[in-house]
């Protein structure tokens, strides 16, 4: 049936012609940012609560705790089984599994995507494409704790994401090898104390949403780590040009000079 014939038939029955739709469905799997990032207090992990600065930090933490508790209540309204005590244990396992999956992400990308968001995946694998990472978790120096929690909507009010920041004070060992198998950073036998603030995110309005590593907060007062030296391929030496004999040089010089006529009286 031709389009004209179809149009006349639909007009006889009083039907509207179909409208062309160019819209495409899209799925938002992560927020792409951090809601009100947590600002770690300077000297965290070193100051005692007995000192003046330590007591001041405790007071500031209590003042900011109100918004976090409201966010926790919002999370519980969508997840009845959510508790901070159980979440801290789950977050520790997610943190370990994410770093263990990073060591084999070139052969099993799906496993790393199971524990980290798309935002964290790019940040973690950006400089590890041609490197070999050896990481090991030894022990926790202090129990991990939730220091920050926020919820926010993306695109629409019914599309909610939750972010919880966990403080980890642990002992770890890290060693990185370049693509030639040479050690360029760290040592597998060297255990270091590591203080980290890791943001976990979950799509709470999604039925099958799960907590994943989303971001790592690095405070300004934390000393910068040693830069990793970059490796390059050594260029091949240029071929040596053959030396010209001196006779050829003189003949070429004489031939290049123009002939000059000398006039005699």
UniProtKB/TrEMBL annotation:
Region span, Disordered: 1-22, 228-265
Biased composition, class Basic and acidic residues, residue ranges: 1-14
First-listed, main subcellular location of the protein, grouped into a coarse class: mitochondrion
Protein localization: Mitochondrion
Any Pfam family: Tim44
InterPro entries the record matches: mtLSU_mL45, NTF2-like_dom_sf, Tim44-like_dom
Keyword Transit peptide: yes
Domain Tim44-like, residue spans: 68-218
GO CC terms of this entry: mitochondrion; ribonucleoprotein complex; ribosome
UniProt keyword terms in alphabetical order: Mitochondrion, Ribonucleoprotein, Ribosomal protein, Transit peptide
PANTHER family on file: 39S RIBOSOMAL PROTEIN L45, MITOCHONDRIAL (PTHR28554), LARGE RIBOSOMAL SUBUNIT PROTEIN ML45 (PTHR28554:SF1)
Assigned protein family: Belongs to the mitochondrion-specific ribosomal protein mL45 family.
Protein name: Large ribosomal subunit protein mL45
Source organism of this protein record: Cloeon dipterum
């Amino acid at each position: 049936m031709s389009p004209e014939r179809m149009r006349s038939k639909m007009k006889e029955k009083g039907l509207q012609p179909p409208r062309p739709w160019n819209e495409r469905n899209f799925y938002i799997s992560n927020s792409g940012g951090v809601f009100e990032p947590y600002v770690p207090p300077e000297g965290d992990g070193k100051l005692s609560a007995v000192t003046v600065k330590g007591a001041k930090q405790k007071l500031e933490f209590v003042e900011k705790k109100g918004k976090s508790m409201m966010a926790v209540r919002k999370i519980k309204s969508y997840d009845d089984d959510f508790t901070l005590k159980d979440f801290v244990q789950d977050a520790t396992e997610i943190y370990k599994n994410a770093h263990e999956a990073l060591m084999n992400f070139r052969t099993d990308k799906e496993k790393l995507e199971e524990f980290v968001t798309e935002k964290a995946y790019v940040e973690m694998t950006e400089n590890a494409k041609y490197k070999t990472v050896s990481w090991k978790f030894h022990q926790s120096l202090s129990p991990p704790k939730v220091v920050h929690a926020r919820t926010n909507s993306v695109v629409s009010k019914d599309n909610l994401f939750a972010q919880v920041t966990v403080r980890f004070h642990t002992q770890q060992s890290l060693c990185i090898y370049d693509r030639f198998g040479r050690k360029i950073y760290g040592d597998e036998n060297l255990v270091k104390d590591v203080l980290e603030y890791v943001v976990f995110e979950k799509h709470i309005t999604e039925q099958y949403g799960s907590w994943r590593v989303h971001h790592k907060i690095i405070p300004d007062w934390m000393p910068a780590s040693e830069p990793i030296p970059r490796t390059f391929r050594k260029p091949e030496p240029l071929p040596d040009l053959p030396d010209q004999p001196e006779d050829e040089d003189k003949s070429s010089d004489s031939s290049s000079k123009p002939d000059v006529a000398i006039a005699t009286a």
